[in-house]
Amino acid sequence: MTQKPDQCLGEWIDREALAEAMIPLIGQLYRNNNVVTSIYGRGLINRSVIALLKAHRFARHRQADEAELSVNETHQILTTMSKMDLGAASVDLGKLVAKFKAEGNGRSLDQFVRDELAEVAGKRNTTGVHKGTDVVLYGFGRIGRLLARILIEKTGGGDGLRLRAIVVRKGAENDLVKRASLLRRDSVHGPFDGTIHVDAENNTITANGNLIQVIYSNDPSSVDYTQYGIENALLVDNTGKWRDAEGLGQHLKCPGVARVVLTAPGKGELKNIVHGINHGEITADDKIISAASCTTNAIVPVLKAVNDQFGIVNGHVETVHSYTNDQNLIDNFHKGSRRGRSAALNMVITETGAATAAAKALPVLKGKLTGNAIRVPTPNVSMAILNLNLEKATSRDEINEYLRQMAMHSDLQKQIDFVSSQEVVSTDFVGSRYAGVVDAEATICSDNRVVLYVWYDNEFGYSCQVVRVMEDMAGVNPPAFPR
């Protein structure tokens, strides 16, 4: 039946009102209970009315009948949750609705939610003491600042990861103001979502209530973090200067530092962790680990999914990668081949270790992949082209549908996203929180040979993966629902 204009607008206004009513419930559950809410992996915290409605619309791709997720149902779920005095948890409202429809067995939605979350009901932290894990960012470049944004966004009630300090080399007399300005404004990722205050006398930046000490040091082994009240900290080295256990071990000599995460591929015997793939290998004895590279994080989840279902005989990974700060803006000397030529004017063929590094996270791929890279004149968002020979023949529709299901319902749903549009381009993926996004319309398949195109925000998506590794290393990942 054709809708009338007034009816269509009226329904939209009603949905807007419900979404507005959801915002304080989402915020209170997060700040007071450390409950993180999402819709099929799309985070809901600090989101606008329109963003919430878009998340409900997005969910139609995740439902068996492709029906849009009902705001009435999600609002009801949040209302019930707000009355349960919940302990820390991660709750996917979209999946909860889907499970209710499949397994409600005559129960009301209210009763279903109470049964499903009974494990954490009545377990809210009422002590007023927040036992979060202190975090130190060693280096404050592209990845360091994005990690800061994500950590500040995820502060919640203070029981998770808490950004306490940033360590940099002093670059100028007004260094602190410049560092704060770079956190506040970003040419690619836009303005910081919140407020920032600079205290030059005490060398601190306060961002959304997070008091961050800025420490100036040229020596990774000489800082006493305990003098700033920092204890048992998780230090994240974003400099890439040291990539083996010996070099990174210098941080462990500092009072107040307990563990180290490297945001680059590790060398030697360091564990290279791709969250969603081998994060289960992190143990309490691991003092230093690597979060691998952005490209390794982008390709390994998709490669694992394909190998599990179809088997990979061999293949080649070609990365079309945005230029990075390692390259020259204009032609100048560079120790690397070709990288001395202007990044803004040239496509530059260069090497990538991602294909080899993939085998560190997923040993079944050892010796099966080759890889290369082309740096291109864009500031962010890259693409990995996976040219694979499979053990089993398949079709374009079959492998696309399989990867869509993996993005929706598998343990890799935070790593793999899926898009089916002939109009998307690289800037559409700026800010993507996934390790990689499969572009279904670009898939090529012929018998047992397939070519997959995987977009990834090599800055923000990778930073989200790093934070997931940090949460596992710190042991601050709450139970996820529905089970």
Could you characterize the architecture of this molecule?
The protein is an alpha/beta fold. 31% of the residues lie in helices and 22% in strands. The protein is built from twelve helices and 20 strands. It has helices at residues 5-33, 49-58, 71-82, 93-103, 109-116, 142-153, 175-184, 245-248, 294-310, 354-361, 396-409, 460-474, and strands at residues 35-39, 42-43, 89-92, 133-138, 161-168, 196-199, 204-207, 210-216, 233-237, 257-262, 288-290, 312-322, 348-350, 369-376, 382-390, 416-419, 436-439, 444-446, 449-456, 480-481. β18 (444-446) and β19 form a beta hairpin. α9 crosses α10 (354-361). The mean pLDDT is 93.
State the main characteristics.
483 residues; eight-stranded mixed beta sheet; 12 helices; 22% strand; single chain; alpha/beta
Termini Cα gap: 39 Å
In percent, how much strand structure appears in the residues? 15-25%
Helix content: 25-40%
Number of strands: 20
Major sheet characteristics: 8 strands, mixed
Counted by DSSP, the helix tally is 12
Which segments are poorly predicted (pLDDT under 50) over 5 or more consecutive residues?
none
Mean pLDDT: 93
User: What spatial order of strands do you see in the largest sheet?
Assistant: 6-7-8-5-4-9-10-11
Structural class: alpha/beta
Radius of gyration: 23 Å
Shape: globular
EC number: 1.2.1.-
Keywords: Oxidoreductase
GO molecular function, one term: NADP binding
Pfam family, one: Gp_dh_C
